[in-house]
Amino acid sequence: MAASAGHLRPGRYLALFALIVIVLYALVFLTGNHKPTPKLGIDLQGGTRVTLTARTPDGGQPTRESLNQARQIIERRVNGIGVSGTEVLLDGNNVVITVPGEQGDQAKNLGKTAKLGFRKVVANATQPVVPPQTTPPPATGTPTSGAPKTSAPPSSGAPTASSGAPTSTKSGGGGAPGAAPAQQQTTTPAPPSSSTTPPPASTPAPAPSDGSVDAQTAQQIQAAKAVRQDPKLIGADGQPNQELVAKAMASLTCAPNAKDALEGNDDPKLPLVACGDHNTYKYLLEPEFLPGTEIADSTSGYDQQRGQWVVNLSFKSEGTKIWADFTSKNTGQQAAFVLDTQVVSAPNIQVAILDGNTQITGKFTQSEAKDLSDILKYGSLPLSFASSDATTVSATLGLASLQAGLIAGGIGLLVVFIYCLFYYRLLGVLTILSLALSGALVFAVLVLLGRWIGYTLDLAGIAGLIIAIGITADSFVIYFERLKDEIREGRTFRSAVPRGWVRARRTILASDAVSFLAAAILYVIAVGDVQGFAFTLGMSTVLDLVVVYLVTHPLVAMVSTSKNAFLSNPRHLGLGAVQQLGSQRKKAASVGRANVKEA
């Protein structure tokens, strides 16, 4: 900034500010959805807040590392399904998910444990409690590429899958153009459960808020593990212990809505008796040979050839090797995809799958295929979670909160306006104009941030904006008081403006720097609503400097050089008293110098 009003050329600064405002509002109205409204948080537009309580099998405290890892995975899931404005935060040993708007149902599924593992099927049996679905007759005709026929599974014995169940296909190369592939793996696993996501974990009693399971639940987990994960279920020769297997299967209820105490708490190093196939089959499974963390990608899509929705899996390099080795050595055997102790699919391996690309097919709806794909894609959580609380905030309550915040901000502005008009008069009018332009700038930035980075304005953010009104007004007060100091020393209003600005801007910069630093530190160390407060406070502090430099000072300079007697009259600017005092001091100083000269 120039030191004198003559070199200031305030018109250029005002033109620059006008250009900034024009560009911002052009972006507001000509990009995105063209609606000049900022995105609102859950406390303003309503939504859902879900609290997930971490559980550990031994009842101990979950580690901070595992909680942070779980939060990051859930956050990736949020980004993957495109739920905008969602926050995932840690609150002690709980993970809190907040979803604005009407997307709360998706948030309730984000905490699914999704402990996916691949196990070899040793045996399966129909569920004696729930009548199994009618099994279609065996497939007829000659399958392509010499694939063996499939038949209905027996009540026990060798693991085969029901006809018409989900399939996993792997095509090999070598076929002539227009002909069937040289190698076509057509497998028929047991169908997935009625929902691709497993039921909530068994919690007979509410889990404590510290994240550990209660004593009764821990006992039930250990009891279920002792029977259904007994190391002796499978002998050294790989054959099932018929007595122990029968006991384990009898202890397991596979009703449609049955809760499994082992969900998320099973030991991958031990055998497992689990439910699958719409909860009408029970499976005896070997220890896990491939963890779900080896999945590189998972997508869902519609298979035109089969006329059904499918989920496609690809593995990481190590997972591809393990999967290729298993499918090579276990041709004709079943591999169960176990999701939180639920067998989602159990394909019969027809040929070796060397490249790791695998397809899960079945009676999926589009949403079920997408849900399963998302859960597999965005990782297995290191902890098991129970949804201990799901609160829905009404949009009506959010509107009332927004109105209350706007009323509070309006009252704050009104008080500032009255004070400025009473104390600074015409300078107060410049203050009001500067605040109005500052508000227009802030509003445009909020709208654009909502579109570009998904920033959502909540009540805490509105509180930050209201406090920023005081910070902006404080900059004006500093400047005007510096003008008074200069006039009090006997200078005219015109000569006081550049000198007062040079002294005032140092103080304004120092003050705003402290405010911005405090907001930045608060933003880094805080979470949730406090972080939103810090963001709007810091943003408004930066915009305060823009307004003071490009609007307030140029306007004051224009008034000081105006030939209009009304505008440049110090009395109309609230400077009459200090000008009179300055004149008296100047006169007294002149008399003093005259007396000294005479002496």
Describe this structure in words.
- The protein has about 600 residues and is α+β, with helices and mostly antiparallel strands.
- The chain has a domain at about 5-40 and about 395-595: Multidrug efflux transporter AcrB transmembrane fold.
- About 45% of the residues lie in helices and about 15% in strands.
- The protein is built from 16 helices and 14 strands.
- It has a five-stranded mixed barrel with strand order 4-8-7-12-11.
- The longest helix has about 35 residues, at about 495-525.
- The protein is elongated and about 125 Å long.
What's this model, at a glance?
With 599 residues, this protein is an alpha+beta fold. It is built from 16 helices and 14 strands. The protein is elongated and about 125 Å long.
Structure keywords:
single chain, Multidrug efflux transporter AcrB transmembrane fold, alpha+beta, 16% strand, four-stranded antiparallel β-sheet, disordered N terminus, 16 helices, five-stranded mixed barrel, Protein translocase subunit SecD, 599 residues, elongated
Low-pLDDT stretches:
1-6, 128-212
Q: What's the N-to-C terminus distance?
A: 45 Å
Please provide the count of β strands: 14
CATH class (first level) name of the domain at 5-41 and 394-593 = Mainly Alpha
For the record, the CATH architecture of the domain at 5-41 and 394-593 stands as: Up-down Bundle
Q: Beta-strand level of the residues, as a percent range?
A: 15-25%
Shape: elongated
State mean pLDDT (0 to 100 scale).
74
The radius of gyration computed from the alpha-carbon positions, rounded to a whole number of angstroms, is 36 Å
Q: In this structure, how is the largest beta sheet organized?
A: 5 strands, mixed, barrel
Topology-level CATH name of the domain at 5-41 and 394-593 = Multidrug efflux transporter AcrB transmembrane fold
What is the helix content?
40-55%
For this structure, what is the CATH homologous superfamily of the domain at 5-41 and 394-593?
Multidrug efflux transporter AcrB transmembrane domain
Domain Protein export membrane protein SecD/SecF C-terminal: 386-560
Organism: Amycolatopsis vancoresmycina DSM 44592
Function: Part of the Sec protein translocase complex. Interacts with the SecYEG preprotein conducting channel. SecDF uses the proton motive force (PMF) to complete protein translocation after the ATP-dependent function of SecA.
Domain Protein translocase subunit SecDF P1: 67-121
